[in-house]
Amino acid sequence: MPKRPAPPLSRTRRVTLAGAFGFTRLIVELGVLSSFAFSLALFVAAIAQAYVTIRAALGDLGEAHTTKTLIVAAVEQADTLLVGVALLIISFGLQALFVGRVQNVPRWLHIDSFDDLKQKLIGIVIVALSVNFFSVALEWKGGTDILVYGAAIAAVILAVGAYSVILSRQGHRPDAPDDQHAAP
Fold first, then answer.
1. The CA-based dihedral angle spanning residues 110, 85, 156, 136, taken in that order and rounded to the nearest 10 degrees
2. Looking at residue 9, what is its pLDDT?
3. For the whole model, what pTM was predicted?
């Protein structure tokens, strides 16, 4: 027995669905703004911390610990900035995917799909984990505890890297339509 086509939605139901989707778009926009605000706050915090650390280090120039203190602070600032960049990319990506293309951003920051967003974030996560481990290694006092920490970070990086490879291969399937992954 052939299936009958579904009856068209009534005008009231279409308006209700459009309102629900519009509300969802508003919620995503609030998420975009909160991610952007956290990103901005992390950038400001990193700048303020750099100022405080450098100012304190200028008074201790020539001391044996000053250089190491500056290196550790610089690596920790890089970690903070990377998290800020990740939040900024999330903000731009959600804006592009749900609300509309973001203007005046570099081409590498254009997000065309969730896979694009995930790939950009994967790269930042791997670098942030590496920077975090480097920061811990700089303050390492000896012992085997760093081996466990390093192995845990390496396992996460390997898992995320494998996921990235799988994700990129799915994006270039021979059976996938060419226009699905084409840049606008």
1. 160
2. 60
3. 0.69
